[in-house]
Amino acid sequence: MITVTIARRASDRRIASFAVEGHAQYAKPGKDIVCAGVSAVTVGTVNAIEALAGVQLPAVVKSGWVSSDIPEQADKAVEEKLQLQLESMVVMLDSIAQSYGKHVVIHEQLLQ
């Protein structure tokens, strides 16, 4: 199963970090559309943030694992772009989880 953890700051509910771990085991490796979809969404979001917001996320990417702590941005416009892309990632992952709930679960937590 793939577990997605989204950590939000309690003060403003902005995404402070995310972690995606595990394998869906929906199909054999190389043919698993659930793993492929989750990987495309998460890695694609990290790449899009760098390309579109100009922010290099401190991301860790390896087999069965993607995570990042999201640095707060002094520039409000950049922060808004960054958060919009992260929220988009959550919507896409939620769509996958709704269709393949036995293979993907999403948890959100509030940080103090």
What does it look like?
The protein is an alpha+beta fold. The chain has one domain (2-111): Cysteine protease Prp (Alpha-Beta Plaits, 2-Layer Sandwich). Helices cover 40% and strands 29% of the residues. The protein is built from 2 helices and 5 strands; from the N terminus they run ββαββαβ. InterPro entries: Peptidase_Prp (IPR007422), Peptidase_Prp_sf (IPR036764). Pfam families: Peptidase_Prp.
CATH fold name, please?
Alpha-Beta Plaits
* SS-derived structural category: alpha+beta
Helix proportion of residues, in percent? 40-55%
- Please give the CATH class: Alpha Beta
Please describe the biggest sheet, giving its number of strands, its sense, and whether it closes into a barrel: 5 strands, mixed
Tell me the overall shape: globular
- The arrangement of helices and strands along the chain is EEHEEHE
Give the N-terminus to C-terminus distance in angstroms.
Answer: 28 Å
Mean pLDDT: 96
Rounded Rg: 14 Å
Count of helical stretches: 2
* Total beta-strand segments: 5
Pfam family, one: Peptidase_Prp
Keywords: Hydrolase, Protease, Ribosome biogenesis, Thiol protease
Organism: Paenibacillus thailandensis
GO molecular function, one term: peptidase activity
Descriptors:
112 residues, alpha+beta, Alpha-Beta Plaits
Describe the SSE topology.
Layout: E1 2-9, E2 15-21, H1 33-53, E3 59-62, E4 65-69, H2 76-99, E5 104-111
Parallel strand pairs: 1-5
Antiparallel strand pairs: 1-2, 2-4, 3-4
Helix pairs in contact: 1-2
Protein name: Ribosomal processing cysteine protease Prp
InterPro entries: Peptidase_Prp (IPR007422), Peptidase_Prp_sf (IPR036764)
Keywords: Hydrolase, Protease, Ribosome biogenesis, Thiol protease
